[in-house]
Amino acid sequence: MKALCWYGAQDVRVSNVPDPVILNPRDAILKVTSTAICGSDLHLYSGVIPTMEAGDILGHEFMGEVVEVGKGVTNLKKGDRVVVPFTIACGSCFFCNKDLWSLCDNSLPDAKGAELLYGHAGSGLFGYSHLFGGYAGGQAQYARVPYADVGPIVVPEELTDEQVLFLSDIFPTGYQAAENCNIEPGDTVAIWGCGPVGQFAIRSAFMLGAGRVIAIDEVPERLQMAKDNGAEVLNFMEVEVGEALKQMTGGRGPDSCMDAVGLEAHGTGIDSLYDQVAIAVKLETDRPAVLRQAIVACRKGGTVSIPGVYGGLLDKIPMGAAFSKGLTFKMGQTNMHKYLKPLLARIQNGEIDPSYIISHRLHLEDAPKGYEIFRDKKDKCTKVVLKPHEHNLYPSLQVPPVGA
Length: 404
Known about the structure:
Elements: E1 2-8, E2 11-16, E3 28-37, H1 39-46, E4 56-57, E5 61-69, E6 81-84, E7 87-88, H2 112-118, E8 124-125, E9 142-145, E10 153-154, H3 161-164, H4 170-179, E11 188-192, H5 196-207, E12 212-217, H6 220-228, E13 232-235, H7 241-248, E14 256-259, H8 270-280, H9 289-297, E15 303-306, H10 319-325, E16 328-331, H11 336-348, E17 360-363, H12 367-376, E18 384-387
Parallel strand pairs: 11-12, 11-14, 12-13, 14-15, 15-16, 17-18
Antiparallel strand pairs: 1-2, 1-4, 3-5, 3-9, 3-18, 5-6, 6-10, 7-8
Helix pairs in contact: 4-5, 4-11, 7-9
């Protein structure tokens, strides 16, 4: 089969690789009908996530048709169309039983690396380095799904792939991030980052009762999409964000602040310059400019929610401000299995059509160019979906503009 494989920083290629096979009675094999490039994939593309190996198959947002199941899979049958959560969970350990699916004790084949780096290991992840299991991802024509009796959900025939694809990651991730904000009716939520997760966090915050959402970014099409979704917007290249948030909240600050950017944040202050130098001399591994801003901006007694991925060590975090203001921090990989059915119901009820986020639809063979477009935000790119079994979707990447 064809699959998108990682060969180094800025080097991803479509290669011919062996077809996946059933390795465990609880496995299923999918024919991947739709998959997507995630912002988290760009961290792999940039080379900032360790333990990647040449030839690793990328992709953790995917869905498809069941073509084979192991003997232990009784909930799925050949021909079912399913969405696959990006976290891999056993369904029976201490953490799965507490709805903490992303912390599963049994889905990481070798936990030594994660335990050494983080103290404890979380769940395995599709297509996201050997630190998280080395599982082959879904940016491929076919994929093996471990614990298929627990993870994938069958989707109704009346819904298109594009309506349900983002149940695989970014819709539940944005929703959990909003839920982590401890929103009370009428609250003001500030969200740094208007990429796909940030957009779903905006919609989710309103679903959960927020009175105002203030969205922060610099990319015009992302800011416009946030505005179209009901948010007030700030371009961090044009205003001093902390001062603007004070003015917009009567000096109190937002009730909750969300870092939907993570380890490769950009900023305009001296701290951003410091991060570049510190990373160059290996004094830190991540750039936490947004996290610093969120901590300082949040109101006393408020909550900082962090869906943005961090992978290593941070420096110059204003913990004195966090302690003095009595802030609550909530973060982590999404407990996907908890949200799949409730959010599918919201799609079925017409509360949201997640496909609005898509700007580019490409064939799998065009995936390397798709990564470049998404990373550099070219052609008003907000989200790239790949169709592994369709050809000539948009020849030569002549993609119509959003809304065409």
